[in-house]
Write a structure and sequence with these properties.
heterotrimer; A mainly alpha (938); B mainly alpha (111); C mainly alpha (89); A: 938 residues; mainly alpha; two-stranded antiparallel sheet; two-stranded antiparallel ribbon; 71% helix; elongated; C: 89 residues; flat
Chain lengths: 938, 111, 89
């Protein structure tokens, strides 16, 4: 429980810290400091137990299915890191309060800092590897936010983005590595993973898991070649640099290596990769650090170099090397944080961080001078400082390795590389440490600095002092202060395989590592004395900027993506359609190929020769529709033929209702298309090349064949139908003998209600669309100057339209028992009215047919719904129908089903919507009244 | 032996092929015609799911035993009407697009 | 006897449909095609009635009626289109 609280506390503080900033900066600071202090207190309660060697594991289940539990582990290593995070965190919180100016919003700053603190605590205390990966990503994100804190600086934004990209991708690799470990060991819990070391090493996936985990660790800890994000992250405010990029976040990578050390080390791969990377980084970064003029840049590369030391130690995997690694983690955190803060003080007080401009500050800033010097001595590895102790251990192990190499027998020839590289690294490290102090504090006093340098307020140098004090104390009397602590913290990393006693002395006798140290110090000082010459050469040497490589890599990726995009997606609808249809057809054919397509064994009805003819007609008609597609009118005429034949087919195959509906819909469609065609161009231009046309023909043919085969396959198979129910119940329950109609308005009335609403909505949509800009007559400027309403037509229509309406009524009435019904009747009525429009014009007809059509369709829908609701009155479910038996005089017995009301609703909707559409479209076309000589027959 | 099933399948295949070809054209009007053809084909397809019988409409009469399956017919009736609604909508869209954009190319502008 | 007459009539109607189709495909002017379409509608009416006589059923007469009406309206619309261009004024 305590562990959960430790991790949770900073997260809980995010809100209060931000909110408190409204009142005053100090309020926010107090909340942040208190939270950190509380965390430290909680941790302190656990420390004695952990020092004694106990390991705490708390676990709550979360998402069982993927093996994710909220589980925390507190052992020596976790304890060390928690102390670092919370302790240095407290120092940074205090420091930040004085560092940030009035302009910097402090609430968000502390909030992001708390987020990071909580996430980092989560990383180090996680028992569940997936949870660790989650917290890992959270640290990347909070680091991104903190680096970009000064949003207005472009360099800050770029640095933040770069950091996020590198550490984020590393996080992905880590996730992959974690999952691979789960695959190998069967569990995500550290207790299991750490105990399965040999099993992991033997497994086939070891390589892959190792690479993934190492990618995660190296990106986070800025090892070569992923180091270049760290110098660019120096655009962050100094408290952030001191906390994240020296003491905690970059240590997460080496933490991971240390944590998984018992599980994954001990193999040649581990040795070569990790030690190799570590040593390379050590030397390379130390070299570069020497030439950096920006103080924070120098410190950044120095951090990278020291992380290289730790990594190399963890790579070497001997007991003492591992202990050295853990020791150096502690020491480095202490002195590096203090040095960053000192650099920040210099920057804050002098207004610049450029080492070329600064000099002679020891007079104006004595306290800073003293503290910075102590820190730099620790960094360079001077005796009596903590840095010296861990560096000595590192040198010793490097030397030992050159004598006894466990992984390859006869490598005497080049195993000397290890101590040599280590010494070279140490050399440069001394050089840049000396430079840091000498360039800034010694020499003549600088007079042209932006600000007047003086010592900072108490709160700013106090944290530095505390950290430096730790460095000195541990350096001078390690046996009393650090021994047992180191023992406890290094145990988990070595797998509890520690040497009997851990004696930290600063004098071991005249041993090789002492010589290495002396050589490093001497040579380092020597290098520095030649500094002027070296600097001149260094300026002339070309700089390899890792960031530029990365940027150009990203550019290449983006260009490639754009090219692919242009190839595939060029905004052409035809291409989309072709792709969509081809893939659908392909998917269908895949099904045929996999399952095998065979025709069924059902009985087929033989066809007479006569019935061949309509099919031939239809094929011819469809083909002509395509053939003449350039002349739109002709194409339309052929489509009429197709519609007619389809209707005939429906009638032939015993579906009279369908045949009636089809032919009516066909003609109304033709009407609408003719109305539209008047506005649109009459011809299609010649556009597609033969290549495109062949592609289209291919796509069309394959689609057709696919669907045809499907239809054939279904039709030749046995059928199981549920129709018997409907056929049996149509008369007793539905009250009609036309089963199709009864299904439509009674059994499946709900669907019809929806359909009717769709029609009404479509018509409303169309009305709305046909407002606003009106068309100009396109290809013909005005209608042809023929007679507007030919006399023959008008006379015939006078007789025809009422008759047609009567027929419509008749079909409506008989719909329930014989082919007919609301839809067909409605369509017939629409066609009749359209006839009237064609024959006598809109105005004439409107004068005589004064009905608000929108209301009409609305009433229709309401009627349909109302019929359904009426069933509630009798306590029945929606749309239950009843029957009325009437005996009107003279007619005899009449059975009327309530579905009649429903059908009326349908009729009204069809009439209302379709006439509305036709009328509106006709109106839309009329822009100018044509006064023609022949005059209209009004 | 030529059977009705074969004829109807061929019909559906031809209609789909012609319809798809039109849909792939570059102007809006042929696309609408193509969609119409495809919807005819689909209606035929759905209807033929009820298996083809000649001369036995689903109108209950005395003395008739065999009826065609009425359920696909009812569904296709709905489909025909709604298909018409969509055709009307799309042709009005084409008209409006032409008036607003000045071109009746499917991409809205002349290539 | 009726049966034979029926079958011969159906065959002749079918032939006339084919000839209509030919006119539609070949007609040099669009109006020829429209006339062919109209004749096709009429042939269709005849075909339905003959078919009904063959099946001895009474249910399809309205289909013929409707095709007649629809055919007429379709032809009228097309003709008006040729005449004026704007069908509904």
């Amino acid at each position: 429980m305590t562990m959960l609280l430790i991790v949770l506390l900073p997260f809980l503080a995010i809100g209060p810290v931000w909110f408190a900033a409204r009142f005053s900066r100090n309020a926010s600071f107090y909340v942040a400091a208190t939270t950190t202090g509380l965390g430290l207190g909680l941790l302190a309660s656990l420390v004695p137990e952990v020092m004694a060697g106990n390991v705490f594991v708390d676990s709550w289940p979360w998402i069982e299915r993927i093996g994710l539990n909220i589980a925390f582990r507190m052992d020596g290593l976790a304890m060390l890191f928690c102390i670092l995070i919370l302790g240095i965190g407290l120092m940074v919180v205090i420091y930040a309060k004085f560092y940030l100016t009035e302009d910097d919003p402090i609430g968000p700053f502390y909030a992001m800092l708390m987020t990071f603190m909580g996430a980092m605590l989560g990383v180090v205390t996680s028992e569940n590897l997936l949870l660790l990966a989650m917290f890992w990503e959270l640290t990347s994100i909070s680091s991104f936010l903190l680096i970009g804190y000064w949003r207005h600086l472009p360099a800050a934004r770029q640095g933040a983005r770069l950091a996020l990209m590198i550490t984020g991708s590393g996080g992905l690799f880590l996730l992959a590595g974690v999952l691979l470990l789960q695959e190998i060991t069967g569990s995500l819990e550290l207790s299991v993973v750490l105990a399965s070391g040999p099993q992991i090493l033997d497994h086939d996936l070891y390589w892959a898991a190792l690479i993934c985990v190492l990618m995660g660790a190296f990106t986070k800890s800025a090892q070569f070649p992923f180091h270049f994000w760290l110098p660019n992250a120096m655009t962050a405010p100094t408290p952030v640099s001191a906390y994240l990029h020296s003491a905690t976040m970059v240590k997460a990578g080496v933490f991971l290596l240390a944590r998984l050390h018992p599980a994954m080390s001990g193999s040649p791969e581990w040795f070569f990769l990790v030690t190799g990377a570590g040593l390379t980084t050590l030397a390379f970064a130390a070299y570069v650090a020497l030439f950096k003029h920006d103080l924070k840049g120098l410190l950044a590369y120095s951090t990278i170099s020291h992380l290289g030391i730790i990594t190399a130690c963890l790579g070497m995997s001997t007991k003492w090397a591992t202990i050295a690694a853990v020791f150096h983690i502690m020491n480095h955190a202490a002195f590096k944080a203090s040095l960053f803060m000192s650099a920040g003080i210099v920057d804050h007080e002098c207004g610049t961080r450029d080492a070329r401009l600064l000099s002679g500050l020891r007079h104006s800033m004595p306290i800073t001078f003293g503290l910075a010097t102590l820190g730099a001595l620790a960094m360079g590895g001077a005796p009596f400082f903590n840095g010296f102790l861990s560096k000595e251990m590192f040198f010793k192990e490097a030397y030992t390795l050159s004598q006894a190499h466990p992984y390859w027998p006869d490598a005497e020839y080049w195993a000397w590389i290890f101590p040599v590289v280590a010494t070279v690294g140490g050399l440069f490290s001394v050089a840049y440490s000396v430079r840091f102090i000498h360039d800034v504090f010694f020499g003549p006093e600088a007079h042209d600095l932006p600000k007047h340098p003086h010592d900072p307020p108490f709160g700013m140098w106090l944290p530095v002092a505390i950290l430096v004090a730790v460095c000195v104390v541990v350096g001078v009397v390690p046996m009393y202060t650090a021994e047992s602590f180191l023992y406890a913290t290094a145990s988990p990393v070595t797998g509890y395989d520690m040497p009997e006693a851990l004696h930290l002395h600063w004098w071991h006798g005249l041993v090789p590592e002492l010589y290495m140290t002396l050589v490093a110090i001497a040579a380092g000082i020597g290098v520095y004395t030649q500094w002027k010459k070296i600097a001149a050469i260094g300026d002339k040497l070309p700089t390899i900027v890792g960031k530029d490589f990365f940027e150009s890599f990203i550019e290449m990726l983006i260009e490639g993506a754009r090219a692919l995009d242009r190839l595939v997606d060029n905004q052409s609808l035809q291409r989309y359609m072709a792709y969509t249809i081809s893939f659908a057809t392909l998917a269908g054919f895949m099904a045929y190929i996999e399952e095998g397509w065979q025709s069924g064994t059902g009985v087929q009805t033989p066809a007479s020769l006569v019935s061949l003819v309509p099919v031939i007609l239809l094929i011819a008609g469809a083909f002509m529709t395509d053939f003449f597609q350039r002349k739109r009118l002709v194409s339309l005429i052929f489509m009429s033929v197709v519609g007619l034949i389809v209707s005939l087919m429906f009638i032939y195959f015993s579906a009279p209702d369908l045949g009636l509906t089809q032919i009516s819909v066909e003609v109304v469609t033709v009407l609408l298309l003719l109305l539209a065609l008047f506005v649109l161009p009459q011809w299609n231009p010649v556009e597609s090349g033969w290549l495109r046309r062949s592609r289209d023909i291919l796509v069309a043919a394959s689609a057709g064949i696919g669907v045809g085969a499907l239809a054939w396959g279904v039709m030749t198979r046995q059928q199981q139908t549920i129709a018997d129910y409907y056929l049996a119940e149509s008369l007793p329950k539905g009250g009609g003998t036309n089963v199709v109609n009864v299904i439509l308005v009674d059994f499946r009335g709900f669907d019809t209600m929806g359909e009717v609403s769709v029609l009404a909505l479509a018509s409303v949509g169309i009305i709305v669309m046909l407002t606003g800009k009106k068309p100009l007559y396109p290809n013909q400027v005005m209608p042809f100057p023929e007679e507007r309403f030919p006399l023959m037509l008008t006379s015939v229509t006078r007789v025809l339209v009422p008759t047609a309406l009567l027929v419509a009524f008749y079909i409506f009435m008989r719909g329930h028992n014989l082919p007919g019904g609301g839809f067909i009747a409605g369509l017939v009525a629409v066609v009749a009215l359209a006839m009237q429009f064609v024959a006598s014009g809109l105005d004439w007809t409107k004068g005589r047919f004064k009905l608000d059509l929108v209301r009409l369709s609305a009433i229709g829908v309401l009627l349909a719904v109302g019929t359904g609701l009426a069933a509630f009155v009798w306590g029945r479910p929606f749309l239950t129908s009843g029957m009325l038996h009437l005996h009107p005089p003279g007619i005899g017995e009449v059975h009327i089903a309530s579905a009649m009301a429903f059908d009326t609703g349908v009729f009204l909707v069809v009439v209302g919507s379709l006439v509305l559409i036709i009328r509106r479209l006709s109106r839309y076309q009329q822009t100018m009244e044509v006064q023609d000589k022949a005059g209209g027959n009004e | 032996m030529i059977s009705f099933e074969l004829l109807v399948s061929v019909t559906i295949a031809v209609l789909v092929a012609m319809g798809v070809y039109l849909v792939l054209r570059a102007r809006t009007f042929p696309v609408v015609l193509g969609l119409s053809l495809i919807s005819y084909a689909v209606n035929l397809f759905l209807f033929s799911m009820g298996r083809l019988e000649v001369g036995s409409p689903p109108i209950l009469q005395d003395g008739v035993e065999v009826y065609t399956d009425p359920l696909p017919q009812a569904l296709v009736l709905t489909a025909i009407v709604i298909g018409f609604g969509m055709t009307a909508f799309s042709i009005i869209l084409a008209v409006k697009a032409y008036v607003e954009l000045g071109s009746d190319h499917v991409d809205g502008e002349e290539p | 006897m009726l049966e034979w007459a029926n079958i011969i009539a159906i065959v002749m109607m079918t032939l006339s449909l084919l000839m209509n189709m030919w006119r539609m495909a070949a007609g040099p002017r669009t109006l020829d095609r429209v006339v062919a379409l109209d004749t096709m509608y009429i042939n269709a009416i005849a075909l339905i009635i003959l078919f009904e006589i063959y099946l001895d059923s009474v249910l399809y007469f309205e289909a013929a009626l409707l095709i007649a009406m629809m055919g007429f309206v379709g032809t009228v619309a097309l003709s008006k289109y040729f005449l004026r261009g704007d069908i509904i004024e």
